[in-house]
Amino acid sequence: MVSKILSKTILKGMPSSFILELPPYRKPQIGKIIVRSIFDRTLFVLLRAIQVAAPAGLVIWLFANIGINGVSVLSIIANFLEPFAKLMGLDGYILTAFLFGMPANEIVLPIILMCYMGGTSLVNLSDYSTIGEILIQNNWTLITAINVMIFTVLHFPCTTTLLSIKKETGSLKWTALSFVLPTLCGIIICIFTNLFFNLFFI
């Protein structure tokens, strides 16, 4: 549906055909392949991750440790987002974790656990039953888990991906669209799923 809308609006024009041209076969040179993959791909991604993740880690730590009237800035943000998060079938801490997890999506759950446990640093628990108990104690239900999965699949790309899109397209417009479009889809579907669940199963 999104592709159809885009093709009728900002991507409107003559349909382009897909042509795949195969270069002449050349015997692979293992050394060049390894060097190119290390420098062109691995180091580039690692450098982007360091540029983004290190400052983000510092921001998360500061927000978790700096408080106003005994309440951390992280909790203040979560409380502010709570009404909108509830509409999506989430809670304020989950939505806050997605925002702060923008540098690297894999830190979303550790941020959620840190907030729930009242910690001041990221949490890394390997015991799934313990994680489950923490989530249930903080009012997670089936619909909470479903909407977290939906929003995990449909939300803004991580910062490293956005920087790569900006580099490849050279356009802030397409980078912004890559951020906004999946996020809007995720929000709308979460709201719909939450309303449907509340209407027919509660």
Describe the model.
The protein is mainly alpha-helical. It has one domain (33-201). The chain is built from nine helices and two strands, in the order H-H-E-E-H-H-H-H-H-H-H. The protein has helices at 2-8, 30-65, 73-87, 92-100, 108-116, 128-137, 142-153, 159-169, 172-201; strands at residues 67-68, 71-72. It has a two-stranded antiparallel sheet. A hairpin with a 2-residue loop joins strand 1 (67-68) and strand 2 (71-72). The longest helix has 36 residues, at 30-65. It is globular. The model has no long low-confidence stretch (mean pLDDT 84).
Q: How many strand units?
A: 2
Shape: globular
User: Major sheet, described briefly?
Assistant: 2 strands, antiparallel
- Separate helix tally: 9
Strand content: under 5%
Report the oligomer: single chain
Question: Helicity range of the residues?
Answer: 55-70%
Rounded radius of gyration (Å): 21 Å
Mean of residue pLDDT values: 84
Order of helices and strands: HHEEHHHHHHH
Q: Indicate the low-confidence ranges by residue numbers.
A: none
- Class based on secondary structure composition and strand pairing: mainly alpha
How far from one another are the termini? Answer: 30 Å
Spatial ordering of strands, largest sheet:
1-2
